Amino acid sequence: MCDRGVARRNSRERIEVVRTGAVCAESGSDAGRCAPEGDGGNRTRRHRRAVPQRCRKDAPIMTSTVLTGRGTFDRLAEIAEWDSRSVFVVASAGTVNRLRLDRVLPARARLFSQFRPNPTFEQALAAARARHECGARLVLGIGGGSALDVAKAARALPTEQSAAADVLDGRSAPLADARLVLVPTTAGPGSEVTQFAALYRGSRKFSLDSPGIKADAALVDPALTDGCGPAQTWSCAFDALAHAVESLWSTRSTPVSRTHAVAALTLLIPILRDADPVPSRTERDRLSEAAILAGRAIDLTRTTAAHALAYPLTSHLDVRHGHACALNLTWLATMVEAAEPGDLADARGPAAVASAITTLRRLFGADGRELGRVIQDLLVARGLPTRCPSDSGTELVETVVAEGLASNRISGTPIVLDPALVAAAVGDLLLARSGPCGNRAKELRDA
To answer: According to CATH, what is the number of the domain 62-224?
Structure first.
């Protein structure tokens, strides 16, 4: 039985259904295969939570399908039969051992594990070359966000470096000569439902971003996240939180994206505030659901400055990605909240930004406190540092700000960012200053 359900319509997909606690077909014609509970199955109202539905556990896996729920991973062997010649599998050695993939995948499967967290363009290109070499027409990505992004690249990139760079830079379309199925083992990145993949060139992050990057199907089994330790679990959860917050206030937000973002935050905030250090199975199920919802939201809007400035924090200081995003939200949320009409960048006017902030304050239960301070309190509740002090001094601050503000993800930010204020805020995170995060930035803003 599906204990939670969300049905949504948009221009690209006829209907989307997200579930936890059961295996459900999602999107396109497959959505009709979920039998309604009572007469509520077909009554979907735009932007409102739908009546929960009962879903068949044997729902067929077809194009644009996302299967969710404990036990979904058992369908992997079925998917591997989609290509009788070769299956290209992207997974870390640790994932292979933990999930005993050698017992699940056919002997013809080719494994690629030569990548690291926050993968590089060179590693992605190596994966693409290995995939073409074995002739696989089915790519399986199994693991956290990095593994899924490499799998997306392995399907999308040609083997010649300059041609692959053209795809990365958006000058050429990605390849579409193989099917892609993603199996996340963390709850947060949401890569299983997005049309982009993050790759690094040196310390700078670039995105493959095209409808052709999106997976053909995904298996989202929350049981695969049960073994994640607290640091990884909560960093991933904060990644999903940042996705939802940034999508909600994005200048590209739509009614559909806002619905997904609000639903994700409704699940995430109580868990981040009140959960035990190791979340329960039910909480992990909800984190997986929230990751999908937040992923759906950013698939429509993209992220904003909190992500743009998180990438250099990760590449230079090795801060976990989701944690870095949350650190940036501690000052960025307060900046957006306090922005004057003349500082806004949303062409829809001040009302659009004010509506997003009002919604966020309600969801976070701000109660007179700054949003940034509320997010900082969530970091404390999860045992994550509210700063990442560095001995590199102001030079690193300047590097982080320059690289972050050069990112194309800045464009969706609802305020015009003053580089001096951003540098002060990042300095509060990196330099040995007393007081709460964002203190120096607030002093400059109020001057």
So the answer is: 3.40.50.1970
